[in-house]
Amino acid sequence: MADEFDCQRCGACCAVFRVSFYWAEADDAPGGTVPVALTRQVSPQHRCMAGTETQPVRCVALQGEVGRSVGCSIYAQRSSTCRSVEPGDAQCRKARAAHGLESPRRAAISADSPQPQLP
Predict the structure, then answer these.
(1) How far out from the chain centre does Cα 15 lie?
(2) What's the pTM value of the predicted model, to 2 decimals?
(3) What's the CA gap between 105 and 45, in Å, rounded?
(4) For labeling, which of 11, 59, 89, 118 is most exposed (least CB within 10 Å)?
(5) Please, which residues bridge with residue 49 across strands?
(6) Residue 37 and residue 64: Cα distance in Å, rounded?
(7) Mean per-residue pLDDT over the chain, rounded
(8) Pairing state of beta strands 39-41 and 46-49?
(9) Could you report the per-residue pLDDT of 6-51, keeping only the tens digit for each?
């Protein structure tokens, strides 16, 4: 199922969910990788990616247009929360639905289905 979901064209998860993670994942902690300048404090123990704590949600690291062509400016340094979302999993499908993006398989079936004729 994951092969049918193209994250490089989607990006919905980056524009639906608050991306919270343990503070030590930021690069101001030893071994942290997430650029601290792109984060906001949520609690003494947690941070989130800037832009995901407000409405409308859009991670500051997301580049491009959701549903068309996207990328993450910190992909190699992204948090464990981002790494945990898998193409086609429940979180992915929920984010896609919030943006009106149907599953690739469903879109292909719809395109192949005969369209009703109006009188």
Answers:
(1) 6
(2) 0.80
(3) 40
(4) 118
(5) 39
(6) 20
(7) 86
(8) antiparallel
(9) 888 899 999 999 999 999 999 999 999 999 999 999 999 999 999 9
Q: Which helix (H) or strand (E) holds 21?
A: strand 20-22
- Measured from the Cβ of residue 56, the count of other Cβ atoms closer than 10 Å reads 7
- 99 contacts 62 by C-beta, under 8 angstroms: no
Q: Is the dihedral of CA 75, 9, 66, 82 positive or negative?
A: negative
Burial 4-43, CB ≥16 within 10 A → b, else e: ebebeebbbbbbbbebbbebebbbeeeebebbeebbbeee
Range list of H helices, 17-116: 80-84, 90-98, 104-112
Helices (H), 20-89: 80-84
